[in-house]
Amino acid sequence: MDIQIVPLFAAGIGFVSVLLAGYGLLGYLSGASDSAKLKERVSGTTVKRSDALTAPLGNAVKSVVDFFGRLGTKIGPTETEEIDKGRLRLIQAGMRKPDSYKIFQGLKGFLAVGLAGGFLLVRFLFIEDMSIAMTAFGTVTLAAVGVYGPEYWLSKKINRRKLAVGDELPDALDLLVVCVESGMGLDQAVDRVCQEMKNSGPIISSEFKLLTLELRAGKARIDALRSLAERVGLDDLNSLTSLLIQADAFGISVGRTLRVYSDAMRVKRSQRAEEKAAKMPVLLLLPLVAFILPTLFVAILGPAVIMSMDMFLKMNSH
């Protein structure tokens, strides 16, 4: 009788646990709603219910991010040159927040310690017969993955962003040519292109927007153009900014310079697309060999193999 009661007792405990969890969740949600209403009364503004419900989650994420920032401050490099280099890489990847470098360094340290510590925990709990050499090798390898994995991800993100800018730049130059030749100044043309390319070229639009803000803040055009080239890190954009700086210094027509360079960029984009198209047969060779050819061999040679096996079985039976 005692053994038969155990499943019923476990089911009862599970039911009570789920019920209490439900009541707790309802109380939590109602508490969030009450806090939202109180905030509305105090501030005199309207707070969305969805914002009130997601506020605790946002606070938790903020706490985690702050933890990574504090950790990155303690374990990150202290040399100014290394810090500036790391911040520039993050800016080229599109991450411009002031604390991005500290958070990134803290994430690297957390991953290194977490992966190595997790491996050691699994080794001592479940794989007790592993040798010391293999343990050390696995620990060092996972720690290296935690340190260099984010760096690899950041490099790939930078390269993808550069490719996207390279695809968006010819269209932006065409619009710049139209704006400059219609009588606009270079600063006004950049601002106009920034507004027109918000949807078709969001990355180059954001960079031009930042360039416009720097010019409005009183930064010299030469310094603003150099900052633009440094933020993106694309060779084509570096050449463009150098041409614009020289045209501004020597009084050369900016419209003619932009037209010549936009033609060159358009041809280069076409060549890049043709290069990708030429690589497609080589890239398709691997799935062709791995998936298509074996099925063809089975479909073509399968009946012959089956007939041969039947024939040999009949011969052996006689």
UniProtKB/TrEMBL annotation:
InterPro entries: T2SS_GspF_dom. It is found in: Cell membrane. It holds the Pfam family T2SSF. The chain crosses the membrane at residues 6-29, 106-126, 132-154, 282-306. GO terms for cellular component: plasma membrane. It comes from the Bacteria. It is a multi-pass membrane protein. Keywords: Cell membrane, Membrane, Transmembrane, Transmembrane helix. Residues 173-301 form the Type II secretion system protein GspF domain. Its main location: membrane. This is Type II secretion system F domain-containing protein. The lineage of its organism: Bacteria, Pseudomonadati, Thermodesulfobacteriota, Desulfovibrionia, Desulfovibrionales.
